[in-house]
Amino acid sequence: MRQIFLDTETTGLDPAQGHRIIEVAAVEVVNRRFTGNHYHRYLNPDREIDAGAQAVHGISIERLQGEPRFGDIAREFLDFIAGAELVIHNAPFDIGFLNSELGMLDLGRVADVCDSTIDTLKMAKDLHPGQRNNLDALCRRYGVDNSNRTLHGALLDAELLADVYMAMTRGQESLMMDIGLSSSTVEGRTFVRQAPLPVIAASADETQAHADYLVGLDKAAGGTCVWRQFEEQQ
């Protein structure tokens, strides 16, 4: 499976108010392995950046002078993500901005080239209701090193998100591999078969300690210890 972990930085919060994308990054993962391929561009938005947004990502309009416009990179960006499953933290935000940019170019919508999107913010809220589920909080929760993240940055955040997602979804598949389980699917239902478990016999000292404990327990119970009665019957 080919997945693209995607993030954007913008001039503000709402494309309906004319805000634009100023950075886009996409990191490729195939069958849960980083391929080393990524797409990363800074973009000139041809407008001012809100002070609140700049405080988050630290990108100034001066930094973006001379960078391409979204229209200059739109087709190569679509080529890179085409056919992949997108994984985005707070997907409606990024998809909304991307669809706005594509719409201005008459290039359709993201769903035209990627028909599957996973929103890791929704996933995290389902897994950890009532807790903080921003990217920094998830990095702490899943032991992902985010010490280099002093400001938001699309490429770094996409890479961190990929690590977090791997940890969030390690679950049943890796557990089955770790303990020797196999599964089969019939009519959409998954059945798990467990390999024989190893039997570890108690040592002579452990057996004697257990017997001594039962003697004391039986005495304290006035001779009514069911466990000891059961063992005597055996």
SSE blueprint:
Elements: E1 2-10, E2 21-30, E3 33-42, H1 51-57, H2 70-81, E4 85-88, H3 91-104, E5 117-119, H4 120-127, H5 135-142, H6 154-168, H7 171-179, E6 181-186, E7 189-194, H8 204-220, H9 226-233
Parallel strand pairs: 1-4, 4-5
Antiparallel strand pairs: 1-2, 2-3, 6-7
Give a description of the structure.
The structure is a single chain. With 234 residues, the chain is α/β, with parallel strands linked by helices. It has helices at residues 51-57, 70-81, 91-104, 120-127, 135-142, 154-168, 171-179, 204-220, 226-233, and strands at 2-10, 21-30, 33-42, 85-88, 117-119, 181-186, 189-194. The strands form two sheets. A five-stranded mixed β-sheet has the order 3-2-1-4-5. Strands 6-7 form a two-stranded antiparallel sheet. Strand 4 (85-88), helix 3 (91-104) and strand 5 (117-119) form a beta-alpha-beta unit.
Task: Briefly say what this structure is.
This protein has helices spanning 51-57, 70-81, 91-104, 120-127, 135-142, 154-168, 171-179, 204-220, 226-233; strands at 2-10, 21-30, 33-42, 85-88, 117-119, 181-186, 189-194. The chain is an alpha/beta fold and 234 residues long.
